[in-house]
Amino acid sequence: MKTHLSAFSAALAATGLLLTGCSGGSSEGNAGGGGNGKDLEVVSFQGGFGIDFFKQAATEYESKHPGVHIKVSGGPRVWEQLRPRFANGTPPGLTWPGWGMDYWALIYDNQVFPLDDALKTPPYDGKGTWKDTFDPSLLKLGEYQGKQYELPYHYNIMGWWYNPDTFTKHGWTVPKTFKDLLDLAPKIKAAGMAPITYQGMYPDYTIKGFLFPWVISVGGIKAADDAQSLVPGAWKSAAFLKAAQMIKQLRDSGFFEDGADGLSHTQSQTDFLQGKAAMIPCGTWLESEMRKTMPPGAKMAFMLPPVVDGGAGDPSAIMIGIEPWIIPTAGPNHDLAIDFYKYMTSVDKAKQFITQCGTLTAIKGSDQITLPPLLVEPARLFRESKTVYSIQFDTWYSTLGTESKNAMAALLNGSNTPEEFVDRLEAAAEKVRQDKSKPVHTMTH
Amino acid sequence: MRNRGRTAFIVTYLAPAALLYGVFVIWPVLQAIGFSLFKWSGLSSKKTFVGLDNFKQLFHDSVFWEALLHNAWIFVFGGGAILIVGIAVAHGTQGEGRLTKVLRSVYLFPNIMSLVVVAILWEFVYDPHIGLVTSLTNLFGGSHASAPGAVVQNTSILGNPAKALPAVIITFVWFSVGNLKDVAEVAKRLEVPNKLDVILLGVRTEFADLFGGNSILGGDGRVLFELEHMLGVKGEHVQLEFGQRSDLLHEESVGGDRSAADIVLPTPILQSGPIDDPAGWNRSCASIRANELLKRLHAIEHPVRGLG
After folding, report:
1. Nearest CA in chain B to A10
2. Touching check for B41 and chain A: CB below 8 Å?
3. Which of residues 405-434 of A touch B (CB under 8 A)?
4. Which helix (H) or strand (E) holds A324?
5. Tell me: the pLDDT tens digits for A231-249?
6. Please, what's the b/e burial string for A233-268 (b: 16 or more CB within 10 A of its CB; e: otherwise)?
7. Is B61 inside a domain boundary?
8. What range defines the domain where residue B260 resides?
9. Is residue B12 in some structural domain?
10. How many domains does chain B have?
11. CATH no. for residue B164?
């Protein structure tokens, strides 16, 4: 999820792990400048999954297609090198620019090549159309005004995590409904743990882990779609107010870990793994993010956020986020870029990616393998869900994104009431509506 | 006659630095001012001239004014504290005793640390669970442990809009004091007749650091000193600090209501183009240290004075 990564990486930068020195210009000209059909430059964000997988795929592709040369490079802040290249009209042939790139701004400026025609052609292994190999609910997240610009590769599922051993030991049941949660929380407190902790420094987590799941649970998916589509009044609808009141109720009852509003993602996740808190909102990247610092014997399991009793929403609703790849319009050799990406998205390669990198991919059937244990449950919930949704408003409308984070933090630290909170959100949405220069996006189900 | 030779001498020596300064500082600033008149994503060649529209938007944005107010807070309280503490420390650590020497290094130390390290260090100081501050408050009876069912207290410092900015100012002062102390020390070591002059100069430079390094526009004999200061050493230093301070503030203030500790940074206009992390290259290229500054000031000042 872009957001996960933005929060994740921002915090990583804060801990200094992403500092890479002033190496700067690794972009040594434009491989294949004239578009000879044989050279491809692939530039990838280099995060937790690395770029070895893509390098290996390139080598394999080269051996299958003699004469083709693919250069794969990457970096943890690769967008910094890509931006001037886009501005100068010399972008690479295929890229995953990472969370620091404003994909939509690229799309508005016609810097991204639409892939609708390519998606009608056969996939790498030749059966049906390429489009049919993608999960449609993930593919549609890369659309703008009816055209396909971004293609998903791997995706994340957002939810809550708990420690199954702790729950078994105390005889607790995983709360399915908000009422269950309110009943269980005092017992957890009595056992000397905080019921819930959260990544207070990065309110994206609580927007995605508390607010939207409960908005949808109360008002149905339409309540969230309307808000993301900036329908007047949607951000201060009854569903948003109720969701905000639920968050306040948990806060006022002391069910959040003390001081969580000042915790970074790693601090709060460490607290969770050390058993200081029983539950935490986070995506399926949690294990790979915490692997190095995980206390021995720490366990985690995925759960959906508890739903509102008698809410209008689908209790199976599940939030996901994609990591998109794009083919720059000005990049050389579009056909080769498309064909190489087809190779990467073939079922076999996608399965290999899941095994090697421990995350799910957008390719249908790629999860028909022995999944990493922690992905089994989220993958099942995803498959069985009737409502798959994604939060995109913050990448479409950055001012609304920023204000939503500020308002969320204020709600959680008690400086805003639920009423003030929704008023703030609606006011920010209204500001975006007034700005006629902003391209409009809509979200439907 | 003698004066003309002196001018030629000075110009000759300053020219290379002035050239670099022009190319890498003045030109990007002018370029950035140019860019500010356009609506531009920075991602394509598509630019639309909008005149002063961006500034109009900026001045209508309440967050901008809040942030500017935070600048003022840092200027008044941070700057004031640096001034007072810095001079006090410089005064208090004179002498050649062993302990004094150690203390001198101790006070200088924060200033030679990478800002990222400083930020991490203070993140721990302010940590709501294991932090020094929380532990101390708990020790003196301010325990935040809430009984089951009680309304939870807000225990985090960086997550609290009222506490975040003072917390950042304290960090900033802690980091910067060594710098001012240095200048005071330079004054002492140089045995300048009027020490106060140099101290004040240092103070001015320190504030110039905060607000854009415009002390180059002095009007007397000190100009040269300052010019050298900026071009030879301080020029880089000023930039480094801007970059680093933006890091510090960014990294320390992301929690809570995020705009609570936002400040307006002069750094972005020193960069050309819409680079979102102007600090990046500064941060990683950081090599000019305060002690280096001290050494080089020492070396620069003497020949210049020798000319008089």
Report:
1. B251
2. yes
3. 405-406, 409-410, 413-415
4. strand A318-325
5. 999 999 999 999 999 999 9
6. ebbbbebbbbbbbbbbebbebbbbbbbbbbbbbbbb
7. no
8. 67-145+152-307
9. no
10. 1
11. 1.10.3720
Give the number of other CB atoms < 10 A from CB of residue A319: 25
How many CB atoms neighbour CB A95 within 10 A?
A: 27
Q: Could you give the CA distance from residue B132 to residue B217 in angstroms, rounded to a whole number?
A: 43
ipTM above 0.90, yes or no: no
Domains of chain A: 2-13+28-154+323-386 (3.40.190.10), 157-319+392-434 (3.40.190.10)
Contacts of B274 in chain A (CB under 8 A): 83
**B247-301 confidence digits (pLDDT tens):** 444 434 333 344 444 444 432 222 222 223 333 222 222 222 232 333 333 333 3
Give the nearest chain A residue to B42 (CA atoms). A87
In-domain check, residue B37: no
The single-letter code of the amino acid at A412 is L
Within a domain: B42: no
What is residue A351's three-state secondary structure?
helix
On chain A, the residues whose CB falls within 8 A of the CB of B277 are 77, 80
Cβ atoms of A375 and A157 closer than 8 Å: no
Q: Which residues of A touch B46 (CB under 8 A)?
A: 109
Mutate to test the interface with B, among A106, A183, A263 (most CBs of B within 10 A): A263
Tell me, yes or no, if A187 comes closer than 8 A to chain B by beta carbon: no
Smallest CA-to-CA distance from A250 within A194, A310, A311, A193 is with: A194
pTM: 0.74
A17 touches chain B (CB under 8 A): no
